[in-house]
Amino acid sequence: MLGPVILAASRSDRMRRLISAAPGTRQVVERFIPGETVDEILPVVRNLTDRGLELTMDVVGEDITTPEQAAAARDAYLELIDRLKPLDLGIRAEMSVKLSMFGQALPGGHELALANVRPVVEAAADIGTTVTLDAEDHTTLDSMFAIHEELRKDFPQTGCVIQAYLFRTEADAVRLAASGSRVRLVKGAYKEPASVAHQDKHEIDKAYVRVLRTLMGGEGYPMIGSHDPRLIAVAQELAHRAGRKPDEYEFQMLYGIRSEEQARLAAEGYRVRVYTAYGTDWYGYFMRRLAEKPANLRFFVRSMITKG
Questions:
Q1: Per-position pLDDT tens, the chain of length 308
Q2: Model pTM score
Q3: CB 90 within 8 A of CB 128
Q4: Angle at the Cα of 258 (from 252 to 262), degrees rounded to 5?
Q5: Could you list the active site residues?
């Protein structure tokens, strides 16, 4: 199984240097990360929204080792929000944030991350949009959910992400579905031990469907994070059974993956939000995209050979 190997490489400084310097890397990175600066990403935002798609935007970067870096990550999001304001997109362009970027792993990290993410949530609300807290590895989730609950006291639209492969997620979904919050369901992209997570793909898929059934039957707003045609069809059927209208849930897919399917669903009247990452610290995000799908890795290797 290549996935666990690639995920291990995502934490290796040596592999980071090798892959960053490899011929063809930039071509593949641009498939998933269409820019490094706000100036580069704004035309992408306009293009996607002009085509009837929505966005959740991620400033990539997770290796935060100082409070100053965490503050810089906060400021990068504040700059993005400020630049989005004239576009008047409202909820059509929301933010996704990883609390590790805001200092969650530093000493006193829970309080630091909350202090850094709050102004981002406030600024997003000021331009009519919101923020979703991304899920990271299982050791960070209690802190993430506590911050999510705290933020929702003043900003109830604040969303969060749950990962189907974790054993705890079915219970988390019951709690969140009853709260009226916005919940993105994904399979999970971190290397987790068998003590806390399903390891078999079919077991993960079955857990995904069970959790999705809970979300669709609840009072929240489900966000289906998947490119799997089977799971998309299941989501449509579960939404129909639950009496949900097309604007009462949405599909979310990554920039650069199944773009034609994104357009098709949007043309059929479904809400489709494109997870769009940008920034210079792309390595961790890029490696997880390779780990998720063998075809992505084959594309990368082929590009390296072609450019070499």
A1: 555 544 554 455 565 555 555 555 566 667 788 888 999 999 999 999 999 999 999 998 767 899 999 999 999 999 999 999 999 999 999 999 999 999 999 999 999 999 999 999 999 999 999 999 999 999 999 999 999 999 999 999 999 999 999 999 999 999 999 888 999 999 998 889 999 999 999 999 999 999 999 999 999 999 999 999 999 999 999 999 999 999 999 999 999 889 999 999 999 999 999 999 998 776 666 666 666 655 555 544 554 444 43
A2: 0.87
A3: yes
A4: 50
A5: 134, 184
